[in-house]
Amino acid sequence: MTITRFSARGEVIIRDLSKSFQIDGDKLTVLKNVNLDISAGESLAIVGASGSGKTTLLRVLAGLEEPDSGGVLIDGTPVHGLGKERAVIFQEPRLLPWLTVLGNVAFGLEVQGVSRREAEDRARHYIRLVGLTAFEAAWPRQLSGGMAQRVGIARALTIQPEILLLDEPLGALDAMTKLTMHEELTRIWTEERVTMVLVTHDLEEAIFLADRVLILPKEKSASPRVIEIDLPRPRDRSEARFVRFRQQLMAEFGLH
Amino acid sequence: MTYELIEPARRSHPKWLRRVANGQRRRNVLGKIAADYGLLFAFFALWQIASGAGWLNPSVFPPLDRVAATLWTGIASGALLDDIAISLQRAGIAFLAAVGLGIPLGLFMGQIRAIERALDPILQLFRQTSALALYPVFILLLGLGEASKVFVIFWATLFPILLATIGGVKEVDTKLVEMARSFGASRRTIFRRVILPASVPPIFVGLRLSATTALLLLIAAEMIGANKGVGFQVMNAQYNFQIPLMFAAIFLLAFLGLAANSVLMLLQRRLCRWSA
Questions:
Q1: CATH for A41-66+80-252?
Q2: Which residue windows are coiled coil (chain A) (predicted)?
Q3: pLDDT at A18 over 70
Q4: Chain B closest CA to A249's CA: distance in Å?
Q5: pLDDT in tens, B68-99
Q6: CA distances from A14 to A49, A62, A68 (A)
Q7: Chain-centroid distance, C-alpha A134
Q8: The complex's ipTM?
Q9: A88: nearest CB among B182, B197, B200
Q10: Rounded to 5°, angle at Cα A97 from A182 and A85
Q11: Are residues A249 and A227 in contact, defined by beta-carbon separation less than 8 angstroms?
């Protein structure tokens, strides 16, 4: 089965976005007047110290949190809540233990009302894309961490979103698996031409995967900084310019 | 389904290797039986010998072959079958009623925090009140007939099922619920495809606890006010000093308990092939 994507859609415009939480009666401002344009098909990484609001920003984009003020436009349309054009990949694979790999990957489409047959047909395509065809019938408990996370990625891709939202998706994986997954995410992003928004605290991961890196400051009055990573893909971590970007990003966090 | 991952590799082994593996497996099975049931057999053997040799008073502990013979005649003549039938009917009706009420109510209560919180203290009170202590109340209300017996068993079995179901629903991983929501699943879909399957294992814990309780209460109820049933036979045989019959009825009750438990285990394994 071949799946064709028609237009390069998935443009995101964030305007004056603010979000605060009530914690024990105190108001905690997490995002204040955030403005950001993400072009269709771009890969954007969001980094920042903990408490900078990077995960909250992603959750607002996903529709899992409502902003207090300001809003998000996707392809020119204001969005409220969840939408089929966006899919989230969480830090944990969040697989349903009572479904096989195939069932889990088809799950997203099925809850959107697609028949099981069709959902599974499409799921098989993405299971192949993440290299798990031999494990279609396996239960989640039989998978390694990296494999389980790939199932989560396939599940998100199966609904063919325009925008893929990744919330520290590789944070729980070991270093070796992480490197493999970086290559794999690059390949998937190149093949699928989706807009990718990646929240991470791994600076090297951000440089390896993103066209631009957004640095969210902890100080809410400061404005976010953006660093453009104009390196050709596939990227080489040992290359001089890669190393320079890493030094530049580290310096942003006061590290050397 | 999962076998497909393992089986092809095994099939490709040469024949002789498989035969060795089979032999080994047979020996393992025997070893496992000895490890699991050896002590039980030893206990029975000791009983038989001790009773036959007179170390134990045979009129209180008759040799097991006499107990077995009595059990067999009771079943073959149909005398005990009537008792089994009425006992199963009492426990069965009560258990099914508790399942029919407890699981739906628990699923509902577990999802609505306000209802669960409001009802929790009264549930805790009822649960802590021994059903046997309430049996006289049920007799007053429902008479000495079938209704009070079934009701006391129903009462005692309802709470383990209800509380296990509520707990199961409450303990569902909120991250899985959020994942389903992120794909746009409706509340109904989330209930059907996430909350319900996640609750099955804890519900089964409640069911197995309830099945044990059902038999316990059955015997107590039958000992107090019945003229039929396996529990009645235990008491009656003792009054009449038919000690082999008494033990036959006791063993029968143990078998019923074991059977109920294995049926539930089998059902659970079928429904939860994904765990284990």
A1: 3.40.50.300
A2: none
A3: yes
A4: 32
A5: 999 999 899 988 899 999 999 999 999 999 99
A6: 21, 12, 13
A7: 26
A8: 0.89
A9: B182
A10: 55
A11: yes
